[in-house]
Amino acid sequence: MATESNGMHMTSSSSPPPAPDDEPRYGGYSRFEIELEFVQSLANPFYLNHLAAQKLLTQPAFVAYLAYLQYWNRPPYLKYLTYPGPTLRHLELLQQERFRQDIMSPDLVQRLVEEGMRSAVQWHREGA
To answer: What pLDDT shows up at residue 23?
Structure first.
């Protein structure tokens, strides 16, 4: 098991985590819970910028971990995401080397924030 600089464990396994009851705990949390919290944090453009500033998006092991997290695009995992739109969009963008470099730009971060706000407003208008 590889470890990134902030101590979060990354697995080399290419399969999604097992059911939460059947897996070991890390600091009291299952791998499923840890990965769910992390993947949902990707919806935040400021967090993406932070990851880039910490040079994590240039580390091959971390990039491989982002590719592994693509399983969140599929059932049954998809249903656990609170904000599936921005979470999965940003996860997909993070698969592109150019985006991993460009997210350092405050202009791109601001554009993603604005797009997220527009999408939320549109969703509420359509759902009303």
So the answer is: 74
Distance (Å, rounded) from C-alpha 108 to C-alpha 95? 16
How far apart are the C-alpha atoms of 53 and 49, rounded to whole Å?
6
Whether 104 is covered by a domain: the verdict is yes
Residue 17 lies in a domain: no
Which pTM was predicted? 0.78
Rounded to whole angstroms, how far apart are CA atoms 117 and 97? 25
Residue 94 CB neighbours (<10 A): 22
Give the list of residues 6+ apart from residue 109 with CB closer than 8 angstroms, or none: 45, 46, 48, 49, 103
Residue 40 pLDDT exceeds 90: yes
Structure-token pair, residue 56: 């994590």
